[in-house]
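Here is an idea for our session: we take a single protein and study its fold together. To get us started, please write out a protein record for me. Start from the sequence, derive the backbone structure tokens from it, and show both lines together. Go ahead whenever you are ready, and we will take it from there:
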Amino acid sequence: MASEKILKQKQEVIDEIKDRVSNAKSIVLFDYRGITDSEAKELRVKLRENNSDYKVYKNTLMARAFNDLGIDLSEGLTGPSAFAYSSDQVAPVKVISDFAKDHPALILKVGIVDGEKADQSKLVEYAALPSRDQLLTMLAGSMIGIVRDLSICLDLYSQQKEENN
């Protein structure tokens, strides 16, 4: 039987995982086998640039933490798994998916995005979404188009009124 000291250390890790999951809007489990240390560092830098991070925990400890939180991600806890998390809904999914294009050894497994479980196909869909900044730019462009059209209509209307007077 494990000593009390080891059990306490394991419980601290479980609490850390639960804290990260509770404070994140998205979490992603991915298989990191086949990437080198330098590639792992590169991935961590890209994730941090997008207010995300990842950590490798033992699957048994992640399973216990997820169980305590009522989350079922057991299918993602086979083989070596890394755990990415973020306060942004799609940032870690996009970064890991983009990174996986150049590093085919990296495989998205399963995740939770904005409180909903996402399997591998759903994660691929989320990765295809434009970023928040791109969506805001698209929205602003649409709004500018409406204002431009309104100003053209008002100008034409005022010209017509001037011709009639």
Observations:
- The first strand starts at residue 26 and ends at 31.
- The first helix runs from residue 4 to 23.
- The beta strands are 26-31, 52-56, 82-86, 107-113, 116-118.
- Helices lie at 4-23, 37-49, 59-69, 91-102, 120-128, 132-164.
